Amino acid sequence: xxxxxxxxxxxxxxxxxxxxxxxxxxxxxxxxxxxxxxxxxxxxxxxxxxxxxxxxxxxxxxxxxxxxxxxxxxxxxxxxxxxxxxxxxxxxxxxxxxxxxxxxxxxxxxxxxxxxxxxxxxxxxxxxxxxxxxxxxxxxxxxxxxxxxxxxxxxxxxxxxxxxxxxxxxxxxxxxxxxxxxxxxxxxxxxxxxxxxxxxxxxxxxxxxxxxxxxxxxxxxxxxxxxxxxxxxxxxxxxxxxxxxxxxxxxxx
Length: 253
Prior knowledge:
- The chain is an alpha/beta fold.
- The protein has ten helices and ten strands.
- The protein has a five-stranded mixed sheet. Strands 7-6-8-5-9 form a five-stranded mixed sheet, sandwiched between helices.
- Helix 2 (34-47) links the parallel strand 1 (24-30) and strand 2 (52-58).
- It is globular.
């Protein structure tokens, strides 16, 4: 009888452990999503009180490398659709990439009125240091370089450029005054509604920032990860993303 009780207790503990694992996931998300994803996760957990979702933010290229090296992420939200496709090509994905947003670049400053500023104006010394994300692994940094080159000011700005590890750090540089202007994500500017001013960078100056997410192999086995992936595509989640300037690829602006 005692053995039967111990066996039953063992099964119960195993089921509780499995349920606890199922109720917790970790999401890797591009840094431009910081404000928006926090709100999306908060809304989801409000409707699913037994779930717990942690989010690690960073440059999409760095997050890709971490996943390929075995980091325990169930979902990967990239600021560039190329990175989830790479995860698929390398056999590390647990599904097909899903487009979820199109991002936009802005010129933002805490101290300068940017509302009528053009990209070509940045060549003027009064704009001081210009912060952009590292183009080597941050999609917004790559697009910032494209925009500055297209505007013909890339070469003249070399001595004044400050590089952030990701787009969130880039925004922090501009916010703190370490740079006078930041070429940052519109979503981050909208997340600072009572600070600074910004102007949109013309979309004609850079390749579209089409953003996609994908389940990792680890995430494919998680009911919570699969359900959250569906939620991100729902009307309530899309409304949150739109509040931060994101649109679905191909949607009217």
